[in-house]
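To whoever picks this up:

The nightly regression suite flagged Alpha-ketoglutarate decarboxylase as changed. Nothing in the input moved, so I suspect the structure step. Input below, exactly as stored in the fixture:
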Amino acid sequence: MTPLFQKQTKILFLGALFLFLGQNCIAQKSMFWENVRFGGGLGLGFTNGGFNGFISPSAIYQFNDRFAAGTSLSFNYAKFDENTFLAYGGSILSLYNPLRYVQLSAEVEQLRINRTLALDGGNFEDNYWSPAVFFGVGYTDRNFTVGIRYNILHDNTKSIYANAWMPFVRVFF
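Regenerated output under the current build:
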């Protein structure tokens, strides 16, 4: 074999190798995105002298038929009379389906709370971090889950949530 032939053979082999690896990486990448599901929640609430709205987009990775995990962002604004609350942050969640229509969930959430309370003689402003750890159970059917969750770190004086028990609706596509 001539040195030129050997060099061309090496180039051809390396080119085929890179082409094969590139296609394999693209196939793995597309497999990853086939298991990612997007969803979240939206909410609006109106009362006499009050308003509450939130948006919470989420993304989860479906590891198998029973287990998924992901992240979520949260933005919540509430105004009651002259009092305002603004909360934003994120969470990490895991979902487990021990049975076809039953979903167990665990979620760690960290929210930054900015609240302004209207008091006689002026406003009181308070800014702080509010952690939450939720455990929940729900009825699930394909992309839709409805259930209840409990915040084991609930603090009546600091939490943006009125109660430790919270109903929820999740939708993922």
